[in-house]
Design a protein that fits this description.
single chain, alpha/beta, flat, signal
């Protein structure tokens, strides 16, 4: 029985430490996405898209220390509010969650945002 368990553990070890590659057989990082280089294919990475109103509905405690570094795209900042974690969400753009900000309450910070008109 011990030998069987040992064989199973040895066989699954490479899977537990594997890197993931999309369009590549030899990933060079934890997640490696390689372009298909085909002119007729739309390429890119789409993060989760939310409105500020949808983020407001999630409240001020859902995102915490374990979500430090989470990235979202706000596609409409006209609804919801700018209270607490959403204080700096003023317009469309990419935002990253900084769990250490504001006495460890956390804040969404702009990575690349469009000017508010």
């Amino acid at each position: 029985m011990k030998k069987l368990i040992s064989l199973i553990l040895i066989g699954t070890a490479p899977i537990l430490f594997a890197q993931v590659g999309i369009n590549t057989e030899n990933p060079k990082a934890t997640l490696d996405i390689t372009s298909k280089k085909n002119a007729s294919i739309i390429e890119g990475l789409l993060p989760p898209r939310l409105t500020r109103a949808e983020l407001t509905e999630k409240g001020n405690t859902l995102y915490g220390a374990e979500q430090d570094g989470a990235i979202i795209y706000i596609n409409d900042a006209s609804g919801g509010n700018q209270q607490s974690q959403r204080e700096y969400i003023e317009g469309k753009g990419l935002y990253i969650f900084d769990a250490e900000a504001s006495n460890k309450e956390g804040r969404w910070m702009c990575l690349y945002c469009y000017a508010v008109l």
